[in-house]
Structure formats: structure tokens, C-alpha cells
Amino acid sequence: MNQRPDHEHPSHRRPGPRAAAGYTLIEMIAVIGLIAVLSGIGVGLLRTVRNQLETAAVAVREVVRSGVQRARFQRAPARLVLHRGTLGEEPSRLELWGLQLAGEWNFDLGDDGSPDGVFGQRGRLEGGTIEAKGRHGHALVCDGRAGNGLVVELGDSADFDLRRGLVAHCDLWLDVLERATAVLVEKTLSIGVDERGIPEAELSLEGQGAEVGARVTLRAVRPLPTGEWHRIEVEAFEGSFVLRVDGVEVDRQQRDPGRVFWNRQGRMILSDGGLPVTGRIDSVRVYGYEPVRSFELPVDVEVLEAPDVLELRADGRPDPRFHPVPPAYVLGYQGTEQAIRLDASGMPR
To answer: Where are the alpha helices (DSSP H) in the chain?
Structure first.
């Protein structure tokens, strides 16, 4: 049998010109260019992810920080309310709700001798007098024999609206223990004491149309001592109703739905003529809860973890009754997450 010579065996053939030269310079440049393009796309996508998350995270931190600082400055609770959207369709929104002063009465006299409010709300004295017997200066002194102590027409105050929530308080000095209404916002709110001198408050909730719906009654358990100043405060927000006496919570109720009824044409009466205060009233303030800051997250950023309502106390700390451990806001975008955690002081990390 004839065999090929060794030099003709296929395994001993010399490589052709292309095999010897490998890839051409043009081919290598093309491959490098393709790798660069793909890398650029990847880096661009990563940068987009980081930018979207970082933008959202920076804004969330700033809104939370604003809430903590506002609560500390006002020495009043603040809330961050999260409105969850639909990923890719409707963006989520984080709102800071704070107290806006609607009316304040310290019973300082105007130039014409009338008791002006801080926003020029003029009061009409009926059965009360302004005397230098207040907790912080002057006070409204009532004897109940000549009708209402002082009347304020609320319809003159266009911004006075309590439907979104409210805080109202007054300082009260009782000479005797008997049923009395110190602050009355007609069809909306009353603050006073019962026949034993126990502090109580009543709020009306919205019904159908303009009709007043259910009422919420809050009551303390101990009477106020006579001959001393005490502060009675009522708070209503998002179906939560609280009564405080001298800064201590004495009653709380939840009601759903629990939106406060508002009668824009009503009056505010201090020392109701039907149940007058035998004593003195000072430092009457009414606040309304309003959204003061809002941030809309990018539509493709998802809220993976967060409280629907972050309750901040007057010192800016998360309220432990609602948040046993400091809460967190965890945001996600295309499989990447970023967490904003709050420390014990309420500040975001």
C-alpha cells in the first residue's frame, strides 16, 4: 500500500496565510469598539439606576429632615404621609404635614381697646372683660351673666379651615367646679369641663353633604383643681382623636372615616353664654394640619418598605406608639435597592 510522505501528512501541512496572521487589525479594532459600546451601554444603565435612586433617596432624606426640624421648631407633632403610586404608571408621593396657625388669642388689646387676634381677627366682647390676670399677661375674665364672653366671626378668615386636621388648646383657670364650655367653634369643636370639672372635648365629623355626622367625645378621668392654670388641648388628624391635659394624653380614639366637619359660616365663642366659664381663659390657639412640602418620586422607583404615615412627636422623634423601632424607607429601581433608615432622634441616615 502506498503511504504519503511525512511532509505531505495533513498534520504537517504549513498553515495558510490567514491562520498565520491571526485576526487582522481592522477586526481587532471592530471587536474593541463593540466591547466599548456594550460597556458604555452597561455603564449608562448603571448610571441611570444610580441617578434615579440617588435622586429619590436624597429627596426622601430632605423631606424627613424637614419634618423633624419643623416638629422641633414648632414643638408640635408633624407627619409624613406616603401616597403609594403604581410602578411605571403613577409615581409615589411623600408629603410633609405640619401645623399652620389659623387663629391665636392672647387677649392683648388693640389701639382702640378691642381684643385683636394675631391675623387681625377682630373679636366682639359680650359677657367678658380683658384684665391683667392672665397666665402670660392679659386674660379673658368671664362671669356668665351677660352672654358669650368673646365672639369671633370665622367667615372673615378665608384660610381658616379645619377639615384636614386640627390642634386647638386653651389655658383655663376655674374658680368653681361646674359645667362650662371654654372654646366653641360652632358645629365643629368644643372644649370645656363637665359638672365635676373633668376636662372634655367634642368634635363633629363630616356626614353626607353638609350634614354633621357622628360626634367624637374625649374625656379625662380627673377634675381640674380650682385656682390654678391648666392647658386643655385636643388634636384630630386622619381619624385619630386625642385629648391632652397639661401636655399629658388622657384619652385617644380612632374613627374611620374621621374627617372633621367644618362650618365656614360659623363663629368661635370663648366662654359660651349657655355654659359660661366662671374663671379665666388665656392663650387660645387653633392650628390646622396642612401639607407644607411634597416630593414626587420618579415613576419607575418603587417603595419597597416605608410607613404609610410617619408620626413625629413634638421633639422630632418617631412616636414609639406607632413605631416601636425606628422605621426605614427602602426604595427600589430595576433590581437595585437603597435604604434610608431613621435613627432614634428621627434623623435619616
So the answer is: 17-21, 25-74
**Is 40 buried (19+), middle (13-18) or exposed (0-12) by CB count in 10 A?**
exposed
In whole numbers, what is the pLDDT of the chain averaged over residues? 83
Cut 0.70: pTM above it: no
SS3 (DSSP) at 313: coil
Measured between alpha carbons, how far is 192 from 177 in angstroms, rounded to an integer? Answer: 11
In this structure, the strands spanning 93-105 and 279-296 are antiparallel
**CA dist list (Å): 115 to 146, 150, 161, 184, 278:** 18, 9, 22, 18, 20
Q: For the chain, which ranges sit under pLDDT 50?
A: 1, 18-20, 41-48, 118-119
Distances in whole angstroms, Cα of residue 237 to Cα of each of 125, 185, 309, 319: 31, 17, 11, 15
Q: What is the largest CA-CA distance in the chain?
A: 141
DSSP state for residue 58 in the 8-state scheme: H
Please state, in angstroms and rounded to a whole number, the distance separating the CA atoms of residues 57 and 49: 12
Burial of residue 300 (CB within 10 Å: 0-12, 13-18, 19+) is middle
β-strand 78-83 against 309-312: which pairing, if any? antiparallel
pLDDT digits (tens, 9 = 90+) for 287-303: 888 888 899 999 899 99
Q: Residue 154: which residues within 8 A CB-CB, separation 6 or more?
A: 103, 160, 185, 264, 265, 266, 267, 268
Cell of 164: 384636614
